Protein 1
Amino acid sequence: MRGGHDLELVHVTKRYAGGAVAVADVSHLFRAGSYVCLLGPSGCGKSSTLRMIAGHEAITEGSILLSGKDVSALPPAQRGTAMMFQSYALFPHLSVAENVAFSLKMKGVDKAARMRRAGEMLELVDMTALAARLPAQLSGGQQQRVALARALITDPQVLLLDEPLSALDPFLRIRMRAELKRLQRELGISFIHVTHGQDEALALADEIVVMNSARIEQAGSARDVFNAPQTEFVARFMGGHNVLALPQGRFAIRADAVRLAAQGAEAVVTSVEFQGAHVALTARAAGDQDILALIPEEQFFADPKSPGDAVRLAWDEGRLHRLSA
Ligand code: ADP
Ligand code: MG
């Protein structure tokens, strides 16, 4: 239902007591049914933005609309949003099923109905077999599934997730990533997922919103943001790019679009790193510009280079993206 449950931030500002501006005049439309990642370095205002959407933090200026209705003044439970916290915040003395059913108990839903609904939610996250356990008897990944079920039982239109994968080991993180994506598709609701990891955002997001210093730096599809960063900050933060100062201005170019060639910019190799499918070769060119080239490993080892070697670097002009800042 396009437009049905769009979430819109309209000139939203958050100023904490003491004067720090955590979110500065941010406007953005989060489309219904999309997986959006809010991406940016620590301290850029991601959690503040999420907490304002959830209603856990007051908005200093601006408003938040869900389905066109201003929800800025509503308490969290009445907004149509639900938040999954980084720490999961499960009640230690309640069973898994009781944790999941908790918010329905608060709403006065009778026991049979809320336990039935909790059962459905546990099935959704594949935790039916562990319904009677206490949180302390679960692994980190299992606790996270319970936290998800608990957030989803309120039937939110928008699920808010603040660094949901950061406590997991790398293997589990990738598995849970796929789970989150599957859940979002199955439920058809919007997920707004805060992360400081660009690989996580690329893997999950229909749309990436890059934040920097309390503002939105760039928003777009994962491919657009990665392939065509508009600012030096985005190019550097997404990684895998070079920022080149050329006579015509500043440009970004993907590191895998830079190759060793017979003709091209002169440079001296400064480091060589084997990365599996690619070799990351860094070379210093005129003006002390360090340029990173990701070279397919077979190609590299056909004519390997070492630090100190003189090389020439080339790229297609069409791969350069002009930076606006
Ligand atoms: P992120 O989630 O991107 O790391 P936050 O939204 O947590 O960023 O923080 C943004 C800025 O607001 C930071 O400078 C942080 O120190 C400040 N901040 C966050 N919460 C509070 C608070 N409760 N009181 C005062 N300053 C805060
Ligand atoms: Mg945060």
Protein 2
Amino acid sequence: MKKIGVLTSGGDSPGMNAAVMAIAKFASRYGMPLVGIKRGYNGLLRKSTSIYDDMEELHLDTVLDIADRPGTYLRTARCMEFMDPAWREVAANTLRAMEIEGLVVIGGDGSFHGAEHLCKLGIHCIGIPGTIDNDLPYTEMTLGYDTAVNVCVNSVRAIRATSRSHDRPAVVEVMGRHCGDIALTTAVSTGSEIVLVPEVPWRVEDVANRLNQQIAKGNTRATIIVAEGCWESMEPFDMFTFLNSHGKKCYEGEPISAMRFASIMKRMCNNAEVRATVLGYTQRGAEPTARDSAFAYEAGHLAVRLLRDGISNQVIGMKEGKVYYRSIDEALQAKREFNRPLYDLVNHL
Ligand code: F6P
């Protein structure tokens, strides 16, 4: 294989730059020119007026310094056009025109579907799991998850400190889309008292009971970690009627949020000063931890080696602590297993 490309796609995740650096390092070692494609699959769609907006030749000395930087040097995007076979054909033609024979795609499951389609069009693709969500079951870790959890743990520790000073229970919302792993690991690592995740159905009244029990025991700064997707597993609750009848203005049809949930807890827990914090994008913008950087390095190396050896249609992951690869198809079909025993342990169920 002569020339290869790399792109980052979907939500950015700490470690993406480290992976690009590793790819550049090993592409250079194996004598394969490397092209960085900008803004995910968008960079292949020829919508820009200049090719320099879409692509850049990546030399090792350009990217050597980016390895520990947060964000992604190549920029990223979610590319809706890639759902359309006609646009995928445009992308494959662009790669052929540029004589790029192999492509490393760093992203989540949506990005891997895109890579699988490109493979069918004759482009050699290898995926590296870049997402903070840890929602790809074929791998024990995704790139950025460890960093995101560490950001959450540091933030929750700080929140618990001020919560203790003020005797305030806390609701802290973390990311993860439909996956509760960030929430669960954060709860365990911080000794938080309650965790709510999309994988397990829950009732507002039960959570209030548990919080009341904590307060009654003297734990006036109990913390509820909520995964952003936990609202989808909440049993129906009439927030509109409850809040309006408890002196808090609420609009019909308003969606529940961490802030609203804290208001509900306050009113169900004897006016305890429950406060909410949404950690949001802080989880995505941190410098990668050593664990994420090391995974990025090994995954980057393996991706280049596979392309060099003509192996395609694979994704890289971690299994029993070792970096490995398997077919995109098998990886995308792997079933997720949520750690229910750990969840029960946190929630004292
Ligand atoms: O997939 C990573 C992630 O950060 C999710 O945890 C979150 O739901 C989503 O991306 C947010 O996406 P956006 O950057 O489009 O707001």
